[in-house]
Amino acid sequence: MLRQLLPAIFRIMGPHPLARTVLPPGGSVDNTIKSQPREALGSLAAAQKAEREGRLDDAWAHCLVAIGERPFHPDAFVQLASIAAAGGDLETAHASLRRAGAMAPQWPLPPRLLDGLGHGSTTPSPMAAASQRRFILPVQTHRLSVCLIVRNEERFLDGCLRSIRALADEILVVDTGSTDRTVDIARSHEAHVDSFAWCNDFSAARNAGLERARGDWVLILDADEELMPEDHDVLLRELRSGSNHLLLRLRCIQELQGRRYQGYVPRLFRNAPGIWFHDTIHESVTQTVSVLCDVWGMELGLSRTRLLHHGYTPEVVQERGKVGRNHAMLVRAVADNPGNAYMHMQLGSEYLRMNEEDKAFEHFADAVRLCEDSDRLVPDSVEGLLTLYGTNLLRARRFEETERLLTGRLAGRFPPIAWHRYLRGRARMELGRFSEALEDLLDCHARRAEETLSMVPADLDTPELEFMIGELLGRLDRQPEAERFLREALARDRSCVRYAGATARMISRRGDPVAALGLLLKHLPECSNSIDLWILGGQIAMDGPGLESFAVEWIRDAMAHHPGNPALQILNGAALIQAGMMQEAHLLFASLAGSRQPKVLGGLLFTGISCGNVPLPDLGPQEQRSAILTIVGILQQLHARQRGDLIEGFRRSVGAHSERYPWIVEAFGGTDAVERTPPSQAS
Prior knowledge:
CATH class of the domain at 141-313: Alpha Beta
CATH topology of the domain at 141-313: Spore Coat Polysaccharide Biosynthesis Protein SpsA, Chain A
Shape: elongated
């Protein structure tokens, strides 16, 4: 039975799944690195040949070498099971298959072979097993290899290595030509340092370091990154969890233009045969990892471990000349492979850093087109493209293009992330499509704590989002919901003038000016006695029935906090008019007449005529038109507040100025002057 089983094992396993995969060129390695062909690391060819020839001890030894080179090797443990079974060591064969199944729980081969080994035989007794056993399985470990490539990184390297030294079983540093203290710093942390002749290929340098890695897991870092110290225990638990993840994306946090961003980067993976970096710049292992995931039924997961990245702050980018270097490499990469959407996206990103927006958008558009025509897409790359392109289209106020991108064919192939709904909602707001914008932003709000693969603002869960939703609800006359969202925004940022003002306006609109004024009084100290809130409170009080005297007192308090402010002085004059205090209002406007502002001149004329104060100032034709519009506004406000006594007093006094100011009599001499004045003329 066993001899019949072995050919089936070989037939099912066949060559390694990546043996037929075309891998990107590796680049040359300096003589100080004695590399072997990639396919040789973890290869089972020698073990399979020895087993076929009946040299079982040699076959076992070759398997152990392969596992030593690439410790995460389910294929090798299946091969060990075959060797042990051929030697009559069924217990070790069973144990080896269980190890393979534990490594890749969804891989169907180990359980099928275990079933085959179980047919027609029983597990040997402990005594029989002891006498038959010839083979010893390698001890299961959870070692971590940390790999870096560096060049002149003395500014950051010490902090990087300090952050992982207590966790790493080995630190492998590939130096591409440092002329500063980088190598000395690396060696001070007991890192193994190799030299590499730079060949304009980041994958080649990464792969040179990866060749030496012998841990069960590999963590890839840049010198300007640090592992958060509070996450050490998190990482250790993940290394030992026995999950079905072949690769874990680490949460990366970085500061850009004063705002914190976060996303996930593929940096922690099992040290399996066939995993290599690809692409000459912005290199990644996801392509080769995905092939193995398909074979072994494994997954890509999200780690709770966080990285802090310093390298793309503006000063660091300028200091290192990253933009010029990356631009030249990406131009070559796109020329060599114009169908690579990922390279187009990265080149577009570099053009943004060079402030060449149109070129950036051209390459983003090319990347979208290539992705739309592709049958095999990497989700994090597509998500990153839509995030990068959409964010910058919105920033450039290209709202229709933003909306088209995030409603288009490519966006429709993946569930939208919260940030994409935010971008589309903002664009639709600007386009006046308020109902659709509200739908987007409400969905974004519901999923605001959602984790995303691409780099998005870490503060999406902000009161600003609630404020925008409140404003949209207000536009759509959904007052109670609007007020609830605005109050939530204000509760989270009590010092925000916009939030306090919008909430007070919403409360006033539902007919409770007293409550609105109470809210403003509560928040004015926290808002540094904002003049905007004082003015808003004055306007609310002036619009509130029976609050004329309170409006005057409010504005006087405001002027005590902001003495000499012209806007408050004009508002004070308007409040005095509404309260019927014409003489005081006239004196105020007279003191401001030197400004020749239309509202001042209109207020001066209205109060002067109402009080019979002459002479009034002479006005030019344009000033006359502006003053008339201001007076129309005053009359309409008085009419709305049912102050017919003040309107009648002004009308009666107009005739006394017919000789000197005929244009006033012409505009306001009739008894129905207010009623026949179109509201649109109000100032």
